[in-house]
Amino acid sequence: MELEKIIEGKRICITGGAGFIGSNLAEILAKKNDVIVIDSLLTGHRSNLEGIDCKFIEGSINDVEKLRHAFLGTDYVLHQAALASVPRSVDDPMPSNQNNIEGTLNVLMMARKCNVRKVVYASSSSVYGDTPTLPKVETMATNPQSPYAVTKLAAEQYCQVFWKSYQLPTAALRYFNVFGPRQDPNSQYAAVIPRFIKLAKAGKKLTVYGDGEQTRDFTYIMDVVQANLRAAVDTENNGEVFNIARQERISLNELTQIIFRQLGRKGVLDYQAERPGDIKHSLADISKARTLLGYQPEYTIEQGIGLTIDSM
């Protein structure tokens, strides 16, 4: 699928655009659009935008003047900026609240003032919590288990209210365990796949929290890019939330074996106690996104890991 053909000739602002997901969006969109990136560089990296034809504004989404500057004349806002870590939010919930809730409110208010056509918000599967029912469907009751999950759900609801109250078109995408190139393996709160790949390449033990039988619905970054673009141009389903995933789950133990196999080596797992706030199993039902947005995941976990390894 040629993703760059979904949106052409528009002005698009990506909040958190120097981060993992944001920079991948920028790379695709900048081919045929005018792209503005705003990022505080708190967790993003300027180097992620090297070679990408976009305007960069260094600033926080809590700086409303910089948001106004970024949003004026903008067609779509893809709101990716967040402190995206369950353990980080458990350690210190206040920055997550300030960035993920207050920051999102700033984004929505300024998008409304600047007459943005639509805001697409990056939410999270963490809003479902530890409910045992699988797969997760958007109509299920939410049950956040961490401050991070609370912030993502609250911001989702702000998006819905801004559509209902102010007719600002929005969509919220509940990402399920996104991975791929530019995901930072060095962060204290690094996602599991880049961290595992880096350790495995170095011949070091892979730390697994719990027994490794917890399962995740891993989603390759280009499928998430596709979902954002489709949600932005959709005009029929405002104020909705959508699961974005592959709709296939594997255990962390299986994941480690895929990584070892693709690297052509054996490795050792170091099992540690479970972390507070982590959920046991996750699997998405993506029927709604398929039906209403035309979303169709294209990358298997094996393909995605291969492409991620090649990029590191």
Give an account of the 3D structure.
- With 312 residues, the chain is an alpha/beta fold.
- The chain has a single domain (3-180, 220-246, 284-298), classed as Rossmann fold.
- The protein contains 10 helices and 13 strands.
- The chain has helices at 20-29, 64-71, 86-91, 93-113, 147-166, 192-201, 221-233, 252-263, 287-293, 301-311; strands spanning 11-15, 34-39, 55-58, 76-79, 118-124, 170-175, 178-179, 206-209, 215-216, 219-220, 240-244, 250-251, 269-272.
- A 7-stranded parallel β-sheet has the order 3-2-1-4-5-6-11, with helices on both faces.
- α5 links the parallel β5 (118-124) and β6.
Question: How much beta, percentage-wise?
Answer: 15-25%
**Biggest sheet, strands in spatial order?**
3-2-1-4-5-6-11
Largest sheet properties: 7 strands, parallel
What is the rounded Rg? Answer: 18 Å
Poorly predicted runs are none
How many DSSP E strands?
A: 13
Give the CATH class.
Answer: Alpha Beta
Shape: globular
Instruction: Please give the alpha-carbon distance between the first and last residues.
Output: 24 Å
Number of helices: 10
Query: By CATH's scheme, which homologous superfamily applies?
Result: NAD(P)-binding Rossmann-like Domain
Counting structural domains, the number is: 1
Average the pLDDT over all residues and give the rounded result: 95
Would you tell me which CATH topology applies? Rossmann fold
Helix content: 25-40%
CATH architecture identity: 3-Layer(aba) Sandwich
Structural class: alpha/beta
> What sequence of helices (H) and strands (E) makes up the elements?
EHEEHEHHEHEEHEEEHEEHEHH
